[in-house]
Specification:
This protein is mainly α and 175 residues long. The chain is 69% helix and 0% strand. The chain has one domain.
């Protein structure tokens, strides 16, 4: 069954906004980003800053192309999957007391959580759905644009609320 074009547009615009905000977040606190990448202990320390720069470039490409190119949706899905894998790998080896680098919501209490893996997997799945599933051939009308203008801020607020909830300490956890 083909996707409604509004759903496809919401996913694409949402991913574009997410990655644009992620780039802004990284550039705003650039000196710290290399240390965040290094905290994952997946690379030799000398590569942390160059990989951080590469991630910013890739996120910028994902943000800039999400509405225009299927390649950008593949890139979005790849980045989100890589982030989920990096977080999951660190959780499995007990390296969870690090900053995830996720748009700053966890800046007060840096800690990796399985909910971050799930979040990134769901977002990657949405990106893949938007690129792989055919879109219904119908013209957009005024109510579609109104829907887009209502859904995007609502989705952004929901994302922010979920990110804030993820960063809260677990019940019974030491402060």
């Amino acid at each position: 069954m083909p996707l409604d074009p509004v759903f496809s547009l919401v996913v694409k615009a949402g991913l574009a906004l997410l990655f644009a905000f992620a780039v802004w977040h990284k550039l705003r606190d650039w000196p710290r980003i290399g240390a965040v990448v290094g905290g994952y202990r997946l690379l030799p320390p000398a590569l942390s800053q160059p990989v951080a720069a590469l991630l910013v470039v890739l996120e910028l490409a994902a943000a800039g192309g999400a509405l225009l190119s299927p390649s950008a949706l593949w890139l979005s899905a790849g980045l989100l999957s890589a982030y989920a894998a990096a977080i999951g790998f660190n959780l499995l080896r007990g390296n969870d007391q690090i900053d995830c680098g996720c748009i700053g919501f966890a800046a007060v209490r840096p800690r990796l959580r399985w909910t971050m893996v799930i979040r990134n997997a769901v977002l990657a799945a949405l990106a893949l759905l938007a690129v792989l599933q055919p879109v219904a051939d119908r013209s957009l009308v005024w109510i579609d644009y109104l829907t887009l203008l209502a859904v995007l801020p609502g989705a952004a607020l929901l994302y922010a609320a979920l990110e804030t909830a993820i960063s809260l300490p677990s019940r019974g956890a030491a402060s």
